[in-house]
């Protein structure tokens, strides 16, 4: 039985899994990135190191290239492909994937198991996990209880959801009027769904089966709000928070097939890695070049538009 490693690294959280040939999750890790992606990748690898022999490794997420270069991944793919592949692996009839993470959200439209359209919101964090955690902290409520409180609401109030600043101001205003906290939280859940459907999923044909993935999928209040608006069941998979990493591991399995892996092994947690930036003045584009260093030597560069700084 072969095993495959997948890492999904974003701005808020870093996730990792090891799956076997039958797509069973053997070990997993979910950590906060905390603005230190190299350390987060190493910590995830430490968590996953359970003596598994890895036959292939893949990375995805906003820092997928950094992670891929560090671990010498067999495949590096964007999160759209990773989330879609994981969704259809566990739910073959999936037609829509709603993914709301720490700082971005996306909708993926699938037909016959193939992603045919998608959209992302990466400009504003309204309605994402980081915004919800901030509001939970401000209200003194554990984020784990946020959704349950929304379900206790008896009166729906409208909260502005197009902007984090306006949403917070509206919540404060409603609280000053004496509106119960559970009604405000329910209004926020409704606003998140309204914002997602009107901004991210605008013009998209959302059909069941609908999967809800990403950290916000743990919020039962948001899930309920989606179901009320869409008038259909919204499924939260068992590994809703790890689907990107699982997708990366599945991609690795497909990539290596029966070839040998390039994966550097779990021991790389002891290897010093670092990054640095410089601006290329070779043309008016003034590209910002990212260098990845291992043991003080440059092993990768990216960010240029012309390929001048790429390492062959």
Give the integer mean of the pLDDT values: 91
Query: What helical percentage do the residues reach?
Result: 25-40%
How would you classify the helix and strand content by structural class?
alpha/beta
Overall number of structural domains: 3
Number of strands: 13
Supply Rg: 21 Å
CATH class of the largest domain: Alpha Beta
Low-pLDDT residue spans: none
Name the strands of the widest sheet in spatial order: 3-2-1-4-5
CATH topology name of the largest domain, in short, is Nucleotidyltransferase, domain 5
The name of the CATH superfamily of the largest domain reads ATPase, nucleotide binding domain
Strand/helix succession: EEEHEHEHEEEHHHHEHEHEEE
Distance between the termini: 34 Å
Number of helices: 9
* Portion in beta strands: 25-35%
CATH architecture of the largest domain: 2-Layer Sandwich
Could you please describe the fold and organization of this structure?
Helices cover 34% and strands 25% of the residues. The protein has three domains: 3-84 and 244-270, ATPase, nucleotide binding domain (Nucleotidyltransferase, domain 5, 2-Layer Sandwich), CATH 3.30.420; 92-236, Nucleotidyltransferase, domain 5 (2-Layer Sandwich), CATH 3.30.420; 273-302, no CATH class. The strands form three sheets. The chain has a five-stranded mixed β-sheet, sandwiched between helices. It contains nine helices and 13 strands. The protein is globular. By secondary structure, it is α/β, with parallel strands linked by helices. The mean pLDDT is 91.
């Amino acid at each position: 039985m072969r095993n495959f490693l997948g890492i999904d690294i974003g701005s808020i959280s870093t996730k990792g899994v090891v799956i076997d040939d039958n797509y069973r999750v053997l070990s997993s890790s979910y950590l906060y990135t905390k603005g230190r992606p190299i350390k987060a990748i190493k910590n995830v690898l430490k968590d996953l190191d359970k003596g598994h022999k890895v036959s292939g490794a893949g990375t995805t997420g906003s820092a997928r290239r950094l992670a891929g270069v560090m671990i010498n991944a067999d495949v590096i793919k964007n999160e759209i492909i990773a989330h879609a592949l994981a969704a259809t692996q566990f739910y073959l009839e999936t037609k829509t994937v709603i993914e709301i993470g720490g700082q971005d959200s996306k909708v993926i439209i699938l037909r016959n198991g193939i992603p045919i359209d998608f959209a992302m919101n990466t400009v504003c964090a309204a309605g994402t996990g980081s915004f919800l955690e901030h509001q939970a902290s401000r209200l003194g409520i554990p984020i784990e209880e946020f959704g349950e409180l929304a379900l206790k609401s008896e009166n729906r109030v409208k909260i502005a959801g197009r902007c984090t600043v306006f949403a917070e101001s509206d919540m404060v205003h409603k609280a000053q009027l004496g509106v119960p906290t559970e009604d405000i939280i329910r209004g926020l859940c409704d606003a998140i769904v309204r914002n997602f459907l009107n901004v991210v999923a605008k013009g998209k044909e959302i059909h069941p089966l609908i999967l809800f993935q990403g950290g916000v999928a743990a919020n039962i209040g948001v899930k309920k709000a989606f179901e009320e608006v869409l008038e259909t069941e919204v499924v939260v998979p068992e590994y809703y928070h790890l689907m990107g990493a699982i997708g990366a591991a599945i991609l690795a399995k497909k990539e290596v097939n029966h070839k040998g892996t390039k994966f550097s092994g779990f021991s790389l947690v002891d290897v010093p890695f670092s990054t640095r930036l410089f601006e290329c003045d070779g043309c008016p584009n003034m590209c910002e070049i990212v260098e990845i260093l291992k043991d003080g030597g440059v092993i990768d560069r990216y960010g240029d538009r012309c390929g001048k700084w790429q390492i062959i």
